[in-house]
Amino acid sequence: MPKSIHNCHAFRAMPYDRVVRTIAKDQREDVRFSADSVPTMQMATEEYLVSLFKAARLAASHAGRVTLHPEDIILVKRIRGGF
Fold first, then answer.
1. Which long-range contacts (CB under 8 A, 24 or more apart) does 66-74 make?
2. 3-state DSSP assignment of residue 44
3. Domains recognised in the chain with CATH numbers
């Protein structure tokens, strides 16, 4: 039986969960999460980062480089209208 793509994460689940809960607790003391919310946030975070790095790799390639530089990521975020 083929392995589901949703079981292959870039980040381990427990450390990611701790980071999310720490950030949430810093914002508001009484934050609670449903069982599916943190894995859903992890999936969305990983999808965003993968697409960001793919686009940054294209920017680096266009500049004639193989190595990503911070300005590649900054350029992609500016083009996308991101923060």
1. none
2. helix
3. 34-83 (1.10.20.10)
